[in-house]
Amino acid sequence: MNTTTTRVAPVVATDSGADIQDWRPEDESYWNSTGKRIAYRNLWISIPALLCGFAVWGMWGIITVQMLNLGFPFTQAELFTLTAIAGISGATMRIPASFLIRMAGGRNTIFLTTAMLLAPAIGTGICLQHKDWPLWAFQLMALWSGVGGGNFASSMSNISTFFPKRLQGTALGLNAGLGNFGVTTMQIVIPLVMTVSLFGWLGFGGEPMLLVKDSGWIFGKIKAGTPTWIQNAGFAWVLSLVPLSMLCWFGMNNLKTVTPNSGSPISAFLKITYLYSLAFIPSIGMLYLYLPAPTGLGLLNMWVAIPLDIVAALAVMRLAAFGAMKENVAKQFAIFSNKHTWSLTALYVVTFGSFIGFSMALPLAITVIFGFQHIPDAAGVLQHTLKNPNAPSALTYAWIGPFVGAAVRPIGGWISDKVGGSIVTQVISAVMVVASAAVGYVLMQAYGSATPEQHFPMFMGLMVLLFAASGVGNGSTFRSVGVIFDRQQAGPVLGWTSAVAAYGAFIAPVLIGQQIKAGTPQYAFYGFAVFYAVCLLLNWWFYLRGGAEIKNP
Fold it and tell me: Are 95 and 279 in contact (CB under 8 A)?
């Protein structure tokens, strides 16, 4: 009789949208009768919410291309900083996001962080209607978009609490893999919605601008002179975020066994807002020291700025910790004494760092490298200002790579379960060394050619190969973390590695942008190839060689 009572209670709580007091996913009878339905409902709501988070975080990679096509008064280097700012903000936000579920509850957290995306979406739509606004206004919106990047850590932490151990790999793979499709969705949806007056029938939405350069979408080119509603790149997400936020609130649950002291929803919302606000402090401070005048002081280079931002974020979290958060912070810091935390961090930068970094940088790189003819002047100096009439449109092709990378991610996990995570990581690292070096060579040829479009098919094929390898590696690295670390440390390690790897969204746009400005875009990819080769040796040394401390085939 007592067993029947405990099984009925969570069903009633779930149907009413209230907190669940009793949660026993490892109890097979409970799971089959009650838990399975609740867990999968939370998962199916979590996936589109995370997808929108990735979309809002990554949207500046597409927006900057169209700003260039519409003649916004910013240099190519300044436009690359917008994607970089969004990248570093999202990476930094992941550090506090890993604490949110145990402090504020899953339903509270996913609802509020999804609803928070409305602010950068609407703000971006407003800014994009004003060509004459200063660069800092657009940089502020890019910074705010980082909320979407932070949502990955809280979303993965939340879903892991709903499923039994034997199903966590599948559940997390679905959440992460399908959530990653937000990058591809964004790259397809934004070019589409910019072709129409999306909100014109409601009497608002702004006036169109005329393209000064050819643009495009997945079905081909859009000629210069075509009306374009660039503001829809931000406004369009309102159509999904409003119903999704409601769905999160009425369809998801807080597990009191995980978060016994979340307090009232208002109390939980204040905790979330407090932690997310803290994440902006190190990001803003570091960017002020990194970005050149007039936005910042330009005192730091990227390789100093990133470690400084990470250290500052951790310091802020530790100093600001209170109540139950102190214990979570202590657990987070305990992983740093394990050398495998650092090796797995480097390997996850190879995989997810490459995926998100190339996703951010690829659209603008295609536009800048293949959109212009590279012709020497009378003095023999190459010029890169003459428009290429045969240029491929970035908005037509840029989505393919992230689509492939996200699609193969579950395959990487499945193969790793069969043959071993480190073996798969070793193979994909070798592939990425060769492919990255080859991309560098192709870019060198294209950036010195009056007809760079001739090199585009080879470039695009190699980039798709890089995305595919990084996608498979995402799955293999997740599997390795589960094998190498115990359950107490695996969660914090996943949160930490995902945060550091997300800095790839900052590194790739900055590095590629810098090298394009210097006239040597190939050096960026040669540098990536060297890093992949170092990590290939690291993976072999720690996990595959004969005398390895931990054998993780």
Answer: yes
CA 24 to chain centre: 32
123's tokens = 């703000």
DSSP string computed for 263-279:
-SHHHHHHHHHHHHHHH
Q: Which two tokens mark 240?
A: 């999904």
Could you give the C-alpha distances from 362 to 76, 160, 398, in angstroms and in order? 13, 32, 6
Work out the angle at residue 77's Cα, subtended by the Cα atoms of residues 74 and 80, and round it to the nearest 5 degrees: 95
Q: Structure pTM?
A: 0.83
Residue 12 backbone phi and psi in degrees, to 5? -65, -45
For residue 283, give the nearest of 302, 309, 306, 311 by alpha carbon: 309
Output the CA torsion 82→86→91→97 (10° steps): 160
For residues 36 and 46, give the distance between their C-alpha atoms in angstroms, rounded to a whole number.
15
In contact, 64 and 364? CB cutoff 8 Å: yes
For the beta carbon of residue 402, count every other beta carbon within 10 angstroms. Answer: 31
**What is the pLDDT of the chain when averaged over all its residues?**
86
Which token pair is 324? Answer: 């139950």
pLDDT at residue number 266: 92
Segment 242-247 mean pLDDT: 96
Strand partners, 382: 376
| pLDDT tens, residue by residue, 435-446 | 999 999 999 999
pLDDT in tens, 287-306: 888 888 777 888 988 889 88
The pLDDT tens digits of the residues spanning 471-497 come to 998 878 877 877 787 756 766 777 788
